[in-house]
Automatic annotation (TrEMBL), chain A:
It is a multi-pass membrane protein. Residues 256-374, 711-826 form the ABC3 transporter permease C-terminal domain. GO terms for cellular component: plasma membrane. This is ABC3 transporter permease C-terminal domain-containing protein. InterPro entries: ABC3_permease_C, Membrane_comp_ABC_pdt. It comes from Accumulibacter regalis. The chain crosses the membrane at residues 21-40, 252-271, 306-332, 352-374, 402-422, 428-454, 475-501, 710-730, 751-777, 797-819. Its main location: membrane. It comes from the Bacteria. It is found in: Cell membrane. Keywords: Cell membrane, Membrane, Transmembrane, Transmembrane helix. Pfam families: FtsX (PF02687).
TrEMBL record, chain B:
Keywords: ATP-binding, Cell membrane, Membrane, Nucleotide-binding, Transport. Residues 9-227 form the ABC transporter domain. This is ABC transporter related. Pfam families: ABC_tran (PF00005). It comes from the Bacteria. InterPro entries: AAA+_ATPase, ABC_transporter-like_ATP-bd, ABC_transporter-like_CS, ABC_transpr_LolD-like, MacB-like_ATP-bd, P-loop_NTPase. The keyword Nucleotide-binding applies. GO terms for molecular function: ATP binding; ATP hydrolysis activity; transmembrane transporter activity. GO terms for cellular component: plasma membrane. The keyword Cell inner membrane does not apply.
Automatic annotation (TrEMBL), chain C:
InterPro entries: AttH-like_dom_sf, AttH_dom. This is Secreted hydrolase. Residues 1-19 form the signal peptide. Keywords: Hydrolase, Signal. It comes from the Bacteria. The keyword Transmembrane helix does not apply. Residues 51-222 form the AttH domain. One of its GO terms (molecular function) is hydrolase activity.
Length: 835, 227, 358
């Protein structure tokens, strides 16, 4: 029995090479995209985790302040250290400094070598017994080898470390041998870092190693209860969860897109196998008559599907690896998503996911072969042997089909209204799947309606016959159209979503970049000297607005929230913040903050409510005055006025300036600032540059999406070509009869092309309708739920229609392939073999 | 070698109605085919010859009656679909008007198919195939593709395929219908010779007087049953 | 004398600090004869001096027969960060070392290190030193004074109370203890033998009641090792009759004695000091360490004056090896002593596994 199955598979591959290869390719593409995304994310997360482990070590728990400007008092560290459950607490102060006026700030980690050995061994300086001078305890610093290489420095070099206007002249005594190639780090003694850059009498955080028998959860709860409200105990697990949360939505989104690619692959297998069984229905019927068991008639088609799926998936795995490699080289580990900056992770395939994606490819091909296999199983043998593939009459009447479509639409609508599940827009994805189902299931209705109507028109005979063919036998037309419906719907929806997003970002940038010039300290405070100079009268600026940024931990399992301290007017924040709704006036005696849209959605806080902000060791109750649109901080941001911030005990250390030069003095303004930017490594950019940079980052982050769209379209077109060609073969007898009746080959070819174009038209129209619907779901459901970004739906009609026309043209070209098959039909032979 | 003491095919009280109208197509069909006996089934077009053949082969289900086939006299009518397929695979050989030689397999592979389906040990495949190819005059054709064969040659392949697994019964539906008279005559005598040689029973549906005359017995299907 | 200071401090610190003392020119006070020690003040830390240690060894009685424990806190002022005016600057560094000898089983040990005010603390008023949860302190209780020891490590832990049964023993000349031929090679050295032990220890998850006798040493100094010494042998023995015996010698690279001293307080409380010329250490049996390759004279004959005693270890392998910050191996463990005097206590031998580099 295996011999026969193998013969048939080989015969199938030999006689239908193109269709089989295309199906394989489609499966390969789906697997490749999914696998590539998996590999890249895995590598990026591992890389991020490794980098984090280098710097943070592997503590059981971390005690830190909730706000980035806060710290853990030394007395608290000592109290925790004397807990018998604690083996060691490694205190750390981490800050960013500029080395020798190089613009990009570098992480400076102040640690205590005595405790770091147990928790963060990767940060220990190189041990050099021969060194007779210098030492970390005496204020020397150590640099990671990659930083030394980047700065072109060597051990022994004297360097100036600067943060704001505080400077530290010190010496690089050696390197940090255990750091990785992406770690740009400086390590110094914690007391020296504290002395030079603060915080006074406190450290940044304490990393705790617990005794082995201690139960982390219990200990943590007990400690948290003893700690002041501004301090937080994080478990190592929280950090992992946070890292994973960082890019979770983005990853899931990409994976869904990859699944869609795989789905289209499965569809192509479906089309191939359906046509394959249709073409070979006589052969299968014969084998059935000769005694091939019904089970084997089913299995054979599934096996053939698998024979496409396995090599497809294997090729896909290789392709996916190549893609992952290429993408990480070009875009970095976050696929341009901006989550893990600056690293090029190494791709290391693991066996389990490898097998998983192999299985996924096989499942997709099996799923595609399932219905054809079933059809093959139920073919009436005697009839099929005589007359070939019997298209079963539609199982549903037109009315029940309309009803089904309406029900599906209702279900999709309901799903689109559902809240996220597990913080992912799973219902939204389901709604998209339903919309696609509606599109596919309504295809026969439209095909029959259109072709039925056309069949009544007066048309040249060839076209007339082609149209009647389709109107009478809609299955193949439906299959051919379905591929286009799915692929065009997905592509159009992506185009619509991206366009909507881009337009929204564009508007938003208008609002958040009001000043012509921006001066940024790059995560370090601006020097007081400059601020003083700007406060003087002799400056070429009409207006200056200062702002500072900190981060707050609201929930240790989530990425931290940005705290933006800006010179906002309590009464008129809308002058600077793009509010999405009404602004509520705060009670006179309460500090007010305005939260970003993601913050509003993640933490479910609404205007008019109060919020407890961890500031300087206290939980401060603040009034939420409104929600503003923010496309740049996905994990939430809180804006607070400078005056309120200072009143709450914050120290306002501006790190960014918005500058309005006096009219006509723009040149002068830049010249005035130049010495400062040179001396302190500040970044001066005009709003146009920032805007272009932002949009280019935006475009980069959608690069993968474009790749997926292209793949989907390609697969859809393959599907069209394959099914059209198959339908030509199926109707070989009719076409041959026409040929015998005097149609020349050119006319036959034209008839097939007309047919292909009409089917493509139906597919594109339905696809467009579905695409708009899916675009709406993406824009209004997926984006807000996954990324907390809301925006208006903007349909770029020119692009969409151009895409449709392009696809139509491609479809016609694809039909030519089928038409060529028609013209090559051995007319006499086909007729001779007929009854 | 089939047991010659019992019939290779025994049809009893077989009846079939039109699925859509319920009018009987035929009923009360009773006949038997002994080992080595070749029976012709003739009748007007549309009278139900092919349906009767399909019912015997288990491709369609008769409404009542029995069809006992082969040395073990299994009743095709009572079996489920898989068992009918297995019974066909072991005990029936088919010859069709349209040849139905699988175009994607070589001549030899086509002939091996029934051996595979009947689960004949693979060691015998080559010898049996080779021997039969010689018997049907196609020695040297083993590795040819069907597309390169003439109609007569294709039907010879089909005959070899029908006999290779030594079935108890050969069912042939207009075996010479697509052949020119001379080839038809050659192919028919080949078929009859080989069937007799293997002591199988054969039922040949035909319109051809010539074919019918060459058979041992002629059954005529009329609207009133067999005559 | 408490030798681990020399092991830990200089080996760890070259990478951390300037090894050339002249570079920072820290003005360590000298150890001079005739200084008057007052207590409890002098049980506390003397942070101006370069090194200081508090050292308790003890041996338990039935039912925990011959189980030995040891806890040492070292304070070091390596001369680092002297210019930095920050409470957490690494000017004073503390190390702690705890060990447990289970006869017939093995030695367990654990260590900690931290700088003062950041994980570690000490008092200059009384004995109270801690690194995290490890703590050694003197308590004034209604029924008299006592020392409390608290240690917990993943391997073992103990919580012991040590009550004096005899007065303090000031070594050398009223606590001024010479360590070499030159007068500046000396330390202030206070011992408190025959402390009564009560409390419990936990080993392998088993909680054991502890009773026995302990020995407390407290020593601080600026310069000790000289005259080409590369290692030393030391014993501190609580004698069965209630007396106490302390003896040490410093060895040079050729294993010759460069300096030695012994103190014997008999049961009646009479103290006799023995000078180098009156003391002889003779190895009787060597034990070779499979880890470090060091060959330690675990059985030794010590003659001082008219007395001859021999050491007999309860366990041959009481060697300690430390990987970090640098590989160091030495032998420190429970021995029984017999001969003209009998008792139990601790023997320490350093410099046998590789040269001790300073």
């Amino acid at each position: 029995m295996n011999t026969l199955a193998w013969w048939l598979i080989r015969a199938q591959f030999r006689t239908r090479r193109t269709a089989t290869l295309l199906s394989m390719l489609a499966i390969a593409l789906g697997v490749a995209l999914g696998y590539a995304i998996h590999l890249i994310n895995d590598a990026a997360l591992a890389d991020f985790g490794r980098a984090m482990k280098t710097v943070q070590g592997d503590p059981d728990a971390v005690v830190g302040a909730r706000d980035s400007a806060g710290g853990v008092p030394v007395a608290t560290i000592n109290a925790i250290a004397s807990d018998p459950a604690v083996l060691v607490v490694a205190p750390v102060i981490e800050t960013r400094v500029r080395v020798n006026s190089v613009r990009t700030p570098v992480r400076l980690i102040g640690l205590d070598v005595f405790s770091a050995a147990a928790v963060m061994p990767w940060l220990l300086p190189r041990q050099d017994d021969r060194s007779t001078t210098g030492g970390i305890l005496d204020g020397d610093v150590y640099a990671s080898p990659s930083l030394l290489a980047k700065l072109g420095l060597q051990a022994g070099a004297t360097v100036t470390l600067a943060r704001g206007d505080r400077e530290w002249l010190t010496k690089i005594a050696g390197d940090l041998p255990a750091t990785g190639p992406d770690d740009l780090l400086l390590v110094a003694d914690i007391a020296w870092v504290q002395e030079r850059f603060g915080p006074n009498e406190a450290v940044g955080e304490g990393r705790v190693r617990l005794a082995p028998e201690v139960d982390l959860a219990t200990w943590r709860t007990a400690l948290q209860a003893r700690l002041p409200p501004g301090l937080l105990v994080r478990a190592a697990e929280d950090d992992r969860t946070r890292v994973s949360n960082l890019s979770r939505a983005y990853r899931v989104n990409l994976n869904v897109l990859a699944l869609v690619a795989l789905l289209t692959g499965a569809f192509l297998v479906f089309a191939t196998q359906l046509t394959a069984i249709a073409q070979r229905s006589t052969q299968f019927a014969l084998l059935g008559v000769l005694g091939l068991s019904p089970r084997m008639r089913l299995l054979q088609v599934l096996l053939e599907g698998l024979a496409i799926g396995i090599p497809g998936a294997v090729v896909g795995l290789g392709l996916g690896y190549a893609l992952a490699f290429a993408f990480t080289q070009i875009l970095g580990g976050d696929l341009g998503g901006g989550y893990f900056s600056g690293s090029t992770p190494s791709i290391v395939p693991q066996p389990a996911p490898l097998l998983g994606f192999l299985a996924l490819g096989c499942v997709a091909s099996l799923a595609g072969a399932l219905y054809p296999a079933y059809l093959n199983r139920v073919q009436p043998l005697a009839q099929a042997l005589k007359t070939g593939f019997a298209q079963s009459r539609a199982a549903f009447s037109a009315r029940s089909r309309w009803l089904l479509a309406a029900l599906l639409a209702l279900a999709a609508f309901v799903l689109a209204q559902m809240p996220p599940l597990f913080e992912l827009p799973l219902a939204g994805y389901a709604a998209i799947a339903l919309v696609l189902m509606i599109g596919v299931s309504s295809a026969p209705l439209f095909t029959r309606a259109l072709f039925g109507w056309l069949a009544k028109r007066r048309l040249p005979a060839a076209q007339q016959i082609a149209i009647q063919n389709v109107a009478q036998a809609p299955l193949m037309a439906q299959v051919a159209a379905s591929g286009l419906i799915i692929s065009f719907a997905l592509t159009a929806s992506m185009v619509i979503m991206v366009a909507s997003f881009r337009v929204a970002v564009d508007h938003w940038l208008d609002h958040v970049l009001p000043a012509p010039l921006y001066l940024r300290g790059k995560a370090t405070p601006l020097p007081q000297e400059l601020l003083d100079a700007l406060a003087g009268t002799q400056t070429p600026f009409a207006r200056i607005e200062r702002s500072a940024q900190e981060t707050l931990v609201i929930d240790p399992q989530r990425p931290s929230v940005a705290l933006l301290v800006r010179e906002l007017e309590r009464d008129n924040p809308a002058a600077r913040l793009p509010f999405t709704g009404p602004v509520v006036a705060p009670p006179a005696d309460m500090p007010v903050v305005w939260i970003s849209e993601p913050m509003h959605e993640i933490y479910r806080i609404a205007p008019g409510q109060t919020l407890r902000l961890p500031l300087r060791g206290h939980d401060v109750e603040v009034f939420v005055g409104g929600v503003w649109r923010d496309y740049s901080r996905q994990f939430g941001a809180v804006a607070i006025g400078r005056d309120d911030f200072v009143r709450l005990g914050g120290r306002f250390a501006p790190s960014e300036l918005a500058l309005w030069p006096l009219p006509g003095q723009e040149r002068l303004a830049s010249d005035w600032l130049a010495p400062w930017t040179d001396r302190y490594g500040l970044e001066l950019a005009d709003s146009l540059e920032i805007r272009q940079l932002s949009l280019s980052i935006f475009d980069k982050s959608f690069a993968v999406t474009y790749a997926l769209e292209a793949a989907a379209m390609l697969i859809g077109l393959f599907g069209l070509a394959v099914t059209l060609a198959a339908s030509v073969w199926l109707r070989a007898r009719e076409l041959a009869t026409l040929g015998a009746l005097g149609f020349d080959r050119r006319m036959l070819g034209r008839a097939v092309m007309v047919e292909g174009a009409l089917i493509a038209l139906v597919g594109l129209l339905i696809g467009l309708a579905c695409g708009v619907a899916i675009g709406g779901i993406l824009t209004h459901v997926i984006n807000p739920q996954a990324f907390h970004w809301r925006m208006a739906l903007t349909i770029p009609w020119p692009a969409v229609i151009a895409g449709a026309l392009l696809t139509l043209a491609a479809a016609i070209v694809a039909s030519r392939y089928a038409a060529r098959q028609a013209t090559r039909l051995p007319v006499a032979r086909v007729l001779a073999s007929a009854d | 070698m089939p047991n010659s003491s019992c019939p290779m095919l025994a049809v009893a009280d077989l009846a079939k109605r039109y699925a859509d109208v319920g009018r009987p197509l035929f009923s009360g069909i009773d006949f038997a085919v002994a080992a080595g006996e070749i029976v012709a089934l003739v009748g007007e077009s549309g009278i139900g010859k092919s349906t009767l053949l399909n019912c015997i082969a288990g491709l369609e289900t008769a409404d009542c009656g029995s069809v006992h086939i082969g040395p073990h006299a299994l009743d095709m009518v009572r079996l489920d679909e898989a068992a009918r397929a297995a019974l066909r695979a072991r005990n029936i050989g088919f010859v069709f008007q349209a040849f139905h030689v699988l175009p994607t397999l070589t001549v030899a592979q086509n002939i091996i198919v029934p051996l595979l389906l009947a689960r004949v040990p693979s060691g015998e495949h080559a010898t049996r195939t080779q021997a039969l190819l010689e018997r049907v005059g196609l020695a040297g054709f083993a590795d040819r593709w069907p597309a390169s064969l003439s109609g007569g040659e294709l039907q010879r392949v089909a005959i070899a395929r029908a006999l290779v697994h030594r079935p108890a019964l050969i069912l042939a539906d207009e075996p010479t219908g697509n052949l020119d008279p001379r080839t038809a005559s050659d192919v028919l005598s080949l078929l009859l010779e080989r069937v007799r040689e293997q002591r199988a029973g054969a039922l040949i549906v035909t319109h051809s007087q010539h074919v019918a005359q060459c058979c041992d017995r002629v059954l005529t299907l009329t609207a009133n049953g067999l005559a | 004398m408490r030798r681990r200071t020399f092991l830990a401090t200089p080996l760890l610190l070259p990478t951390l600090t300037r090894a050339t003392p002249g570079a920072t020119a820290v003005a360590y006070p000298p150890v001079i004869p005739g200084a008057r020690l007052t207590f409890p003040r002098d049980h506390g830390a003397h942070p101006d001096f370069r090194t200081e240690w508090w050292y308790v060894t003890g041996v338990l009685d039935l039912p925990q027969r011959d189980i030995g424990f040891q806890l040492t806190f070292f304070r070091s002022r390596p001369g680092t960060a002297e210019a930095l005016d920050s409470p957490i600057a690494a000017r004073q560094i503390l190390f702690a070392h705890a060990a447990l000898t289970l006869p017939g089983d093995r030695l367990r040990h654990s260590e900690r290190a931290a700088r003062a005010n950041l994980g570690a603390a000490f008092s200059s008023e009384d004995c109270d030193i801690s690194i995290g949860a490890w703590r050694m302190r003197r308590l004034d209780r209604r029924d008299g004074e006592a020392f409390s020891l608290q240690v917990n490590s993943p391997q073992f832990s103990y919580d012991l109370l040590l009550t004096p049964t005899q007065p303090l023993l000031l070594q050398g000349e009223g606590g001024y203890s010479r360590k070499g031929s030159r007068p500046e090679l000396a330390s202030y050295y206070v011992s408190w033998p025959q402390l009564q032990v009560a409390g419990f220890l936990v080993s392998d998850g088993k909680r054991l009641a502890a009773h026995g006798r302990a020995w407390f040493d407290h020593e601080w100094s600026t310069a000790i090792l000289g005259d080409g010494a590369v290692g030393w042998d030391w014993i501190g023995i609580n004698l069965a009759d209630g007396g106490a015996l302390m003896a040490f010698r410093l060895r040079d690279a050729r294993a010759a004695t460069v300096f030695a001293h012994a103190t014997w307080r008999d049961a009646a409380g009479h103290v006799r000091q023995f000078a180098a010329a009156d003391i002889r250490f003779t190895p009787l049996r060597l034990w070779a360490s499979p880890r470090s390759g060091g060959r330690y004279p675990v059985q030794m004959e010590i003659r001082f004056g008219e007395h001859t005693v021999r050491t007999l270890p309860v366990l041959d392998d009481q060697e300690l090896t430390t990987k970090r910050p640098a590989p160091v191996a030495y032998w420190e463990g429970v021995v029984k002593v017999d001969g003209s005097l009998e008792g139990r206590g601790y023997l320490e031998m350093t410099g046998y596994a590789g040269r001790l580099t300073l």
